[in-house]
Description:
Blueprint: H1 9-59, H2 79-82, H3 84-87, E1 101-102, E2 111-112, E3 130-133, E4 171-175, E5 180-181, E6 219-224, E7 229-233
Parallel strand pairs: 1-2, 3-5
Antiparallel strand pairs: 3-4, 4-6, 6-7
Amino acid sequence: MSRQKGFTLIELLVVISIIALLLSILMPSLQRVKKQARAVICQSNLRQWGQIFLMYANDHNDRFMPGWSEASTLLGDMWIDALWSYYGSAEGITLCPEATKSLYTGQSPFVSWNVEGHSAFEHDDIQCSYGMNGWIGDFPDDRPGATVPVLTGQAGWYWRKAGVKRANKVPLFLDSLWFEGYPLDVDNVPPFNGAPFWDPTGGRAENMSRFCIDRHSGYANAVFLDFSVVKTELKDLWKLKWHRQFDTRTEPDWPDWMD
C-alpha cells in the first residue's frame, strides 16, 4: 500500500519564512509606489484647478476674483465662492489623498480644512486641502478700505491678472493647511513639519507655514500663474515670486526636518 507524500513541518516553515522575507522586502517598495500614486492624483487635481482658474480668468478679462481686503465683506470675493460654478459639481478634486485628517482634530501636515460657519463664505461646507496665494486678487480700488490690504503689504504688491511676466514663478494654488496665505520673504521656516500656522498671541502668523508642509517627501504640488502644475521643493518656496516685491534672494535658516 503506497503512502501519499506531503510537506513536512520543517518544509512548511521554510516556505512560510521565505514568503515572510519576500513580503518584508517588497512592502517598503509597495508603500513608496502607493505614495507616488497619491502624489500623482494630487497633481491631477491641481491640473483641474489650473483649468478652473484659467476659465475664470478667460471669463473676466484675465482678471482674478477680488480676494480679501480689510473691506472684504461681500460674498463671492474669495475663490471658494467665486469659482463655485466651475468646480461645485466636480468629485474629489478638493482633497489631496495625503490629507487624511481634519484640521480641527489635530495639527498635522496631512490635514484638510473647511470654513464651516464662516460669515465670509456662502459655500462653507467643502472639505479641502489646497489654498490660494492671497497676494493674487483684483479687489476694486474704489472699495472703502481696499487700499489697505490685509497684513502689512500695499495694493501694488498684488498680482491682479493672468498673463504677467514670469508667470511660471508666481504660485497660484497649492498644497495648504488653510484656504489662503500671504507669505512674506521674512517669514521663518516652520520649526517642525506641520507646525501651527497661527500666532496664539494674536500677532501675524508666519504665512509661509501654511504652504511649507511635507506631504510629498520634501515637495509641494503647486499651480502657477501660467496655469502649469509643478512639483516644487519646499526650500524653493522662498525663491518664488509670491507678491511683486517678494525678495527671492532670501536664505532662511533651515531646521533639521528640512534636511
